[in-house]
Design a protein that fits this description.
The protein has helices spanning 40-50, 56-74, and strands spanning 8-11, 14-17. It is an alpha+beta fold. Strands 1-2 form a two-stranded antiparallel ribbon. It is elongated. The model has no long low-confidence stretch (mean pLDDT 84).
């Protein structure tokens, strides 16, 4: 296995890049790191904030609701 780092340009959903000529033709695994794009956790934070979960207390209330729903699904709630 050989790992190289190169840069490419994404345009209209396609990426163009150049690899060194000593690479043989074949299949490669590609990992894309977009430094200026938000990650999954940041996206979840933005969605939560947009839905009004912008304080620690509201987030804890949501976690409590989810736990209760999970217990209900398992039939372990005290009604």
């Amino acid at each position: 296995m050989r790992i190289i780092q190169t840069k490419g340009i994404v345009k209209n959903g396609q990426i163009n890049l150049t690899v060194p000529s000593e690479f043989q033709d074949g299949e490669v695994d590609i990992i894309i790191v977009a430094e200026k794009e938000p990650d999954e956790l940041e996206l979840m934070r933005q969605i939560a904030k947009a839905k009004g979960y912008d304080t620690p207390e509201k987030i804890m209330d949501l976690i409590h609701q989810v736990k209760l729903e999970m217990l209900e699904e398992k039939g372990r709630t005290k009604s």
